[in-house]
Amino acid sequence: MKIFTYLTFMTVLASGVMNAGTVALTGSSDLVAFNGSGDPPDGTITMGSASCITPNTGTCTYGGSQSLGSGTLTWEFLTPNIDGNITYSPFSGSVDGPTGGTFSVSDGVDSFSGTYSFSQWTYDGTPDGSGDDGIDLTGLITVTDLTLVGAGDPNEAAFESFLSLPGATSYAFTLDVGDCTAGRRSEQCIVPTDPSASFLSLNLTPQGTPEPGTWGLSLAGVLAVAGLRRRLSRAGKHCL
Which of the listed residues 1, 57, 121, 179 has the most CB atoms within 10 Å of its CB? Predict the structure, then answer.
């Protein structure tokens, strides 16, 4: 009984400092290109192929927008349009880059921005109409700047709650793309014929330091557990 009580309380305490739930970002019609031949070089990824028609010029933009509270939330990946800035292995599933890539979210008043990088790709296990699986691109967004206006902003509470701010300092993310085509023909995504993939979903998992109130509850919980253990120990001695 002692062990059950202690472990149950510690489970409740731990839940107070765990990462928040998944943040689902939607509303994109941009494309991801898996370049397997020609220019850009083999084994590279272009984020937002429509804005990167000419290699080595400008910035590639990949983003979307959705309703949030009383406003509109916009998000975007910005990537320097440099040959080989994002590379991938069609065999191991590894992805490297980009250098200088940024990510931002804003509701027109509040915002955060940061850097992003990919780590790997995997098949998403969901076949499209042609029987080909989409691709999950996973990586990390690190928050470098946060703007919260405060009083007078009716949408700030929705912005903070949705993105677990200001506590989140980074976000693990999964960008799911699929329905790949090469020209007008449906194609597998990871092949040497330059397929382009449509947006399916983008999910962020907030990571970071809990809010001061959460730390206060955690400290109180630790003290309560310590007191509980002392009382149980004394009770056990009295029973001997």
Answer: 121
Band the pLDDT of 41: cuts 50, 70, 90.
Answer: low
As a whole number of angstroms, the longest Cα–Cα distance in the chain is 82
159 and 205 within one domain: yes
In one-letter notation, the amino acid at residue 22 is T
Q: How confident is the model at residue 3 (pLDDT cuts 50, 70, 90)?
A: very low
Rounded CA-CA distance 196/78 in Å is 18
Residue, of 106 and 234, whose pLDDT is higher: 106
- My answer on whether 67 and 116 are in the same domain is yes
Amino acid (1-letter code) at residue 15: S
CA–centroid distance for 2 within its chain? 40
227 in the same domain as 110: no
In this structure, are 128 and 47 located in the same domain? yes
Rg (CA), the chain: 23
Cβ of 96: how many Cβ atoms within 10 Å?
Answer: 16
Domains held by the chain: number: 2
Q: Is 51 in the same domain as 27?
A: yes
CB-based contacts of 154, cutoff 8 Å, min separation 6:
69, 70
CA 103 from centre of chain: 10
> For the whole prediction, is pTM greater than 0.85?
no
User: Per residue in 24-40, pLDDT tens?
Assistant: 999 999 999 998 755 55
